[in-house]
Design brief:
Length: 305
């Protein structure tokens, strides 16, 4: 009978293992209909890191755009995801990054472009770039309303509902493509809120690159002026930029190089205050972003020394 008791104990331990593994991998929350003034209805996918439910610790918060493409392939557009939770766990294992709550904000379908297109850039654009933007917009640009919601009602709700550290140095924002532009927009326009931003494969043509043309001089001047006027001094902030060299990312190098030059000219120290990477052969898609996201997190979200 003693051996039977041992066998039952072993079977019980094996049956409990999946629940333990799931707990150690963090926990997801879904909010399907979130009203936001002046915006399409929003949706959230939130990841709470391992240990959140077992203590009183407060956590830094990472906000990410295109929340439907972050975690679950079944919810994604293309059956592939960034695997942001796994990237965070990998970054945490390095010992350089503290656990973060991840707030994934879903894109609102066909309204995504007008929600992510930086409003100040759109208003300053003219000539071919402005015409190319207008050709893609289906309604008014609402990125300023989106930013006001991110930094106002959404952040207030997150900080009231979860154990967060709400200060600038513990608040980050990351996105790709148009979401990369939106992350830079948030970082430049709300420096008091976001201490860190990751602008991954940012869509610098801001419209159809075939219409804008390669290395459009009007658009390059627009981006240079935007960063020049709004970047300011680092004062402890940190900025990550990158792109690949294939598919849509093949259009980005001339714009990224001009922007990098403006950042350096403002006195930001590369490798300390900001980083800009080129991933040879990387395409403009979620699997490419998933492969480098642990590296992005490990640099961008590293604890201050």
């Amino acid at each position: 009978m003693r051996w039977l008791g041992g066998l039952l104990a072993l079977i019980g331990a094996l049956l409990a293992a999946p629940a333990l593994a799931a707990e150690d991998a963090g926990r997801f929350l879904e909010y399907e209909r979130v009203e936001a003034a002046g915006l399409p209805v929003q949706r959230l996918s939130i990841w709470l890191p391992p240990g959140y439910d077992r203590g009183n610790r407060r956590y830094a918060v990472l906000y990410m755009h295109d929340g439907h493409n972050l975690f679950d392939p079944a919810k994604s557009n293309f059956n592939k995801v960034w695997a942001a939770d796994k990237a965070m766990l990998a970054a945490m294992r390095t010992g350089k990054v503290e656990p973060h709550i991840i707030v994934g904000v879903w894109a609102p379908g066909r309204d995504r472009y007008r929600q992510y297109l930086p409003q100040s850039v759109y208003q300053a654009a003219s000539g071919t770039p402005r015409a190319a933007m207008d050709a893609m917009i289906e309604g008014p640009v609402v990125s300023e309303a989106y930013l006001n919601w991110l930094t106002g009602p959404l952040k207030q709700w997150v900080d009231a509902s979860f154990r967060t550290r709400p200060g600038r140095d513990d608040t980050a924002i990351v996105g790709s493509s148009m979401g990369g532009l939106m992350s830079c927009y948030a970082f430049l326009e709300r420096p008091e809120v976001y201490g860190r931003a990751g602008c991954v494969s940012s869509h610098w043509p801001a419209a159809d690159p075939r219409v804008v043309g390669e290395a459009n001089p009007e658009l390059i001047r627009l981006w240079e002026s935007w960063f020049d006027q709004r970047l300011g001094r680092p004062v402890g902030r940190r900025l990550w930029l990158d792109h690949g060299t294939a598919t849509l990312d093949a259009f980005y190098a001339p714009y990224q190089q001009a922007i990098d030059a403006r950042i350096a000219a403002r006195g930001w120290q590369k490798g300390t205050d900001w980083e800009s990477r080129v991933y040879a052969g990387a395409e403009h898609e979620e699997n490419a972003w998933a492969r480098r996201l642990p590296e992005v997190f490990s640099w961008l979200l590293a604890k201050k020394q």
